[in-house]
Automatic annotation (TrEMBL):
Its main location: membrane. The keyword NADP does not apply. Residues 14-291 form the CNH domain. This is Vam6/Vps39-like protein. It comes from Dermatophagoides pteronyssinus. Keywords: Membrane. It comes from the Eukaryota. It is a peripheral membrane protein.
């Protein structure tokens, strides 16, 4: 369909046409014979796209000129006709029948071309005033005139040109002139001439008055300039052939080419860059002679006049709706919008076509949307998405343009809402490029939608707001699901990142897409973020247990980590899906409950009693492992007596059968033949007690027994929160004497603890270690613990009766006590083996010798007076000769140290007292009787006064006034 309709008005005119001028419904024809013809045209639409006309000859002035009429123009405001004939400018009356002559410009003699400029300005009174200027080319000169009082007056001095002007165009206060071989620019105000560029063809210049631009031809190229001769395009508009004549109409350039070919291009910058071509018509078959020129039809936008030597043609643009449709079909969408804006601004539409504001905006929106769809169909994704954004198009529609993102039914529903949408086949690299653009768009829309949700939640709580929120969340679901599918096709590494954040992916669609791509790990993340932990655990268990994964060990690790990250409200799921791992892989399974290396591990917050019961039901050893970890893990900072008691009791239950078996084995090996020195036999008793050699101390027994006893003793050492009173009795019943000694120490019962080490275990080395531990622990505290070495000395001197030891030896499972040989500390052993000490202590009992050695080694940590009181009065004084001197020296040293410390403290007190006096003296106030009150300016005298920090003195009664005065000054 053509944009312009070509109507042949006159054909085979018997006169030779030289020029034409058309305005309103009238057409003036100037002939070579000097005749001037005036026609009236009645034009109307015969159909939606076709016109019909009637041509009436109104006037014929055969005597208008004796020479050819070369050029015509009119000043319609003053109803005068300006013509160029016989190289002279003449002015005629336009309204009268014979076009009577009014005047001529004598200075224009020899003229070859003229150009009229009519500019309109609004005066302060609101009237429209026209300024009319005339430029006449006379040989190598340009003459300038202005119209006033129905005649032309000289405007400015003549401007000389380097050659004869062939075409002259006014643009503001500049003239653009085409010479024989170049284009020049003339500044009327300054009178300067500036060269532009050379030309080899006939010069051709067309003013684009709507934007104060101009088009200049050079062979088959046309360049667009602004009124300051600055190029507006990086490239030229190219015609099919070299234009012979050219004009502009609306937003188009129309050129006449050889053989009566008419070509229509757009002159809007963006469409010029893309595709300027609109229409091309060949009129050679309809005319007798080739068309020579084309011109505007004044006051009739969209209407042009063309002529050959004997023919007249009118070009008429189709009605507005057809124009828009043609431009849309030609993909000139922006041009279509500009045409709508142009008609709307000029109000040139017919009454039936005038659009209301809403219709106008709706039509523009529709065309721009079609433009965006067209850009998309030509794979210009960035430009298309940008245009969709500016139109605030529904993101669902934009997504629907891409295949495989939305469900087919929903996609077809969206696309069929626009009947002319034709989505191109996207595949391969083109599809990936399009999806990358879509991703950027979706991310931006997602951020904007989330911001809108936040604002809506803060501002409004009504039901309408709730409905809006629902729509926003539905949109977010579409966006996130689309993003997921885009990432699956372009960058799979981003899928997990999307699923880990707070997303709104549609579950079924996302699940289907991930399964289709085999993205098991991402599917698990989806289930997790949606709270579908059972689905995720089923999938993980299938991977780990049923051999679905290539690496089952890694699959088990993932299942363990997932279970650890569940909160305590999912404890049933944790127990359900951890059971098979605990049964098949107990070491790995226990990591669910005791391994908290993961950042999101929640296992520390699980109810521990329930876990212990659950593990106990599967395997008691697992419960023991869990409790052991529970106590060891100091990060939990637990003080639960119940849990620690449970752990200790489980250790006891595990140790009891093992230690019974161990003791039975020792008896069978015949260790009762080995006699040894012991301390706990009362010489006054005749009964003999046999004690069997114990090869290893507690915790060093072979196998599991030693391991369990070490753990038990460690727990008893590091923990303070267990039931010590009842536990002590239980340990005694089990024959776990080392463990009982640790508990007694925790309770502060050091005498009984040391009695176990000395008289039951026969291990003075361990007894001394115990004393050191308690002594150092209490080094900065008051209490009985600092007397532990005295208790050790006391126990070494004692010989407990059998009845005293019966609860250890007879009333428990260890009726036969297994001891190691007497173990002495190295320092005690060296003291006793000293030759001089051996001779002095030779006649004393073993226990006395050891007690004296203990006293000698720890004389500074044992109260000497209390210790001597415990010794037998018959003890030779010589046995203490090595003990007394250093002990007395230590006491004297302590006394001297105390005296020195007391004197230093006294000196420090005196120093502080002296400093206090100095401070008090420095702030004293001396009243001599001459001091003045700063408020009333009277003497202070013997009155009560107040002294301020700035040393001002004020009477007590003047204080309030002084403070008010001070505040006002500040």
């Amino acid at each position: 369909m053509e944009l312009y309709k070509n109507l042949v008005l006159l054909r085979k005119l018997p006169l030779t046409i030289e020029c034409t001028y058309a305005y309103d419904d009238y057409l003036l024809i100037g002939t070579k014979e000097g005749h001037l013809l005036m026609y009236k045209i009645d034009l109307k639409l015969s159909s939606t796209t076709e016109y019909e006309f009637k041509l009436h000859l109104l006037r014929s002035a055969k005597q208008f000129s004796r020479k050819p009429i070369v050029q015509m123009d009119a000043i319609l405001e003053y109803r005068v006709l300006v013509s160029l004939s016989d190289q002279l400018i003449s002015i005629h009356n336009l309204d009268k029948i014979s076009f009577p002559f009014l005047s001529s410009l004598a200075k224009s003699k020899g003229a070859s071309y003229f150009s009229l400029d009519v500019s309109k300005q609004q005066t302060l009174s609101g009237q429209i005033q026209s300024t009319i200027r005339l430029c006449v080319a006379v040989k190598h000169n340009l003459l300038f005139f202005y119209w006033k009082n129905n005649e032309f007056f000289e405007l400015r001095p003549t401007i000389k040109l380097p050659d004869m002007a062939r075409v002259v165009i006014w643009i503001a206060n500049r003239l653009f002139v085409g010479l024989r071989n170049q284009y020049i620019q003339v500044d009327i105000d300054k009178g300067t001439v500036t060269k532009m560029f050379p030309v080899t063809s006939e010069p051709l210049i067309v003013p684009l008055l709507a934007e104060r631009n101009l088009a200049i031809c050079r062979e088959d190229k046309t360049y667009i300039f602004d009124y300051e001769a600055r190029p507006l395009l990086n490239c030229a508009i190219t015609w099919t052939d070299q234009p012979l004549s050219m004009t502009d109409d609306l937003l188009f350039l129309i050129a006449v080419e050889a053989n009566s070919t008419i070509e229509v291009l757009t002159n809007t910058l963006r469409d010029v860059i893309n595709d300027p071509f609109l229409q091309k018509s060949d009129l050679s078959s309809q005319l007798t002679r080739p068309i020579k020129a084309i011109g505007k039809w004044r006051n009739r936008p969209g209407q042009l006049v063309l002529h050959s030597e004997n023919d007249i043609v009118m070009m008429k643009i189709v009605p507005n709706e057809q124009q828009i449709r043609i431009l849309q079909n030609a993909r000139h969408f922006e041009l279509a919008i500009k045409m709508i804006e142009y008609y709307n601004s000029l109000n040139e539409l017919d009454n039936s076509e005038i659009m209301a504001g809403d219709e106008y905006d709706e039509l523009k929106l529709k065309i721009r949307k079609l433009h965006a769809i067209d850009l998309f169909s030509r794979f210009k994704f960035t430009e298309a998405i940008s245009l969709f954004q500016s139109l605030k198009t529904d993101p669902s529609f934009v997504i629907a343009l891409y295949p495989g993102i939305l469900p087919d039914r929903y996609r077809n529903q969206l696309l069929t809402s626009e009947p002319i949408v034709h989505t191109p086949p996207l595949e391969g690299a083109m599809l990936e490029r399009g999806l990358l653009t879509l991703i950027e768009y979706l991310v931006e829309i997602r951020q904007r939608t989330q911001k809108q949700i936040s604002q809506q939640q803060e501002q409004d709580k009504s039901s309408l707001a709730a409905n809006n929120l629902r729509k926003f969340y539905e949109l977010l679901s579409i966006i996130d699901t689309s993003l997921l599918k885009c990432y699956l096709q372009t960058n799979e590494s981003l899928v997990s990142s999307l699923l880990r954040i707070d997303n709104h992916c549609h579950l079924e669609e996302s699940e289907m897409a991930l399964k289709k791509r085999g993205k098991t790990a991402e599917l698990i993340i989806l289930y997790k973020t949606k709270g579908l932990h059972k689905n995720a655990l089923n999938l993980l268990q299938h991977q780990a247990r049923d051999g679905a994964a290539k690496n089952p060990a890694q699959a088990r690790k993932q299942l363990i980590q997932y279970l650890q990250e569940l909160g305590s409200d999912h404890l049933k799921l944790i127990f359900q899906y951890s059971e098979w791992i605990l049964q098949q892989y107990p070491e790995e399974g226990m990591r669910i409950f005791i391994d908290d290396v993961y950042v999101d591990s929640q296992s520390a917050a699980w109810p521990k009693d329930d876990i212990v019961q659950y593990l106990e039901a599967i395997n008691p050893d697992l419960a023991l492992t869990y409790l052991d970890h529970y106590i060891e893990n100091l990060k939990w900072n637990e003080t639960s007596t119940k849990m620690i008691d449970t752990l200790i009791n489980k250790y006891r239950d595990s140790i009891r059968p093992l230690i019974a078996q161990y003791r039975a084995e020792l008896q069978q090996q015949g260790h009762n033949d080995n006699r040894m020195e012991i301390l706990n036999t009362n010489d006054d008793e005749n009964d003999t007690e046999y004690h069997y050699l114990r090869p290893e101390p507690a915790g060093q027994e072979p196998g599991k027994l030693g391991q369990l006893r070490r753990k038990l003793m460690h727990v008893l050492e590091i923990c303070d929160y267990y039931t010590m009173e009842t536990l002590s009795a239980y340990l005694l019943h089990d024959g776990l004497f080392e463990e009982r000694a640790i508990v007694l120490g925790k309770m502060g019962n050091h005498r009984e603890a040391l009695m176990i080490y000395v008289h039951i275990l026969n291990d003075l080395e361990m007894a001394e270690q115990y004393c050191w531990k308690q002594f150092n622990k209490a080094a900065h505290c008051k209490g009985a613990d600092r007397r532990v070495f005295y208790y050790l000395f006391e126990q070494c001197l004692r010989k407990p009766m059998r009845m005293e030891l019966s609860k250890y030896l007879n009333d428990n499972a260890a009726s036969n006590t297994f001891k190691m040989s007497l173990l002495l500390p190295s320092s005690v052993h060296a003291y006793l083996n000293d030759e001089r000490n051996r001779s002095i202590l030779a006649d004393l009992d073993l226990n006395v010798r050891i007690a004296i050695a203990i006293l000698a080694q720890h004389s500074t940590r044992i109260n000497l007076i209390d210790a001597i009181k415990l010794l037998d009065d018959r003890l030779p004084l010589q046995a203490l000769y090595l003990i007394l001197p250093p002990a007395i020296h230590h006491l004297a040293s302590n006394h001297n140290h105390s005296r020195m410390l007391r004197r230093l403290l006294k000196s420090q007190i005196l120093k502080v007292h002296q400093q206090r006096i100095q401070v008090e003296q420095a702030s004293r106030v001396i009243i001599t009787g001459t001091e003045i009150c700063q408020a009333c300016m009277k003497r202070i005298g013997k009155s009560v006064f107040v002294r301020y920090t700035n040393n001002d003195l004020v009477h007590l009664g003047c204080r309030d006034g002084y403070e008010l005065m001070t505040q006002s000054n500040h």
